[in-house]
Amino acid sequence: MKRNKATVLAFAEKCKNILASNWQGSLNTIKADAKGSKGNIHTSKVKYIVRRGQPYLWVPESDLHNVNTIIDERGSFAVTSPFPGPLGVLLKSLKKLPARIALSGDVLPLKEDKAKSLAEKLQEVILSEQKAINEFTYTVSGVLSSSVSSTSRSDNLQELVGDNERYTVYRFKTRSCTFVDGHGRHF
Fold first, then answer.
1. Tens digit of pLDDT for each residue in 98-149?
2. How far, in Å, CA of 101 to CA of 186, rounded?
3. 146 — phi, psi (to 5°)?
4. With contact defined as beta carbons under 8 Å apart, do 59 and 42 qualify?
5. Is residue 173 helix, strand or coil?
């Protein structure tokens, strides 16, 4: 199907919005063994932020992705539109899945000084979001905090700057992006 420039830009904007609205996604890398990459895939959920249009991934140091990317840096990253618990359950019961994106590209480790600088930016983002939430009206704040099973994006990202777990930070250098709508059609 041939698409015009406006349609392509609309899908690019949808991809960007989904990526910017979430904080976690599924990273897929090719499993490595003593003979190199084999084609089996390792998948795990990782947290991320978007900076200057690029996703930066925080991968726990104990995760197999850290070994896989040394052998083969190719990977894919899938992110869905975030829906709070009850709304997500309702949409699933209606067989309407959230829109999602699939990125393919290279998973590139950051040097330690760049990772530290990015962690400082992450702390600024968290503080900015928390300040904005605190400044909302009482009604808006109530809606944002009404879900018992859901925490805010900034609360989830706060784990990354704590001392509980160590992470390796990667830049996901995107080569392609596929948008999948709620009916499973991809663009």
1. 889 999 999 999 999 999 999 898 888 888 887 877 777 666 655 555 554 4
2. 9
3. -75, -20
4. no
5. strand
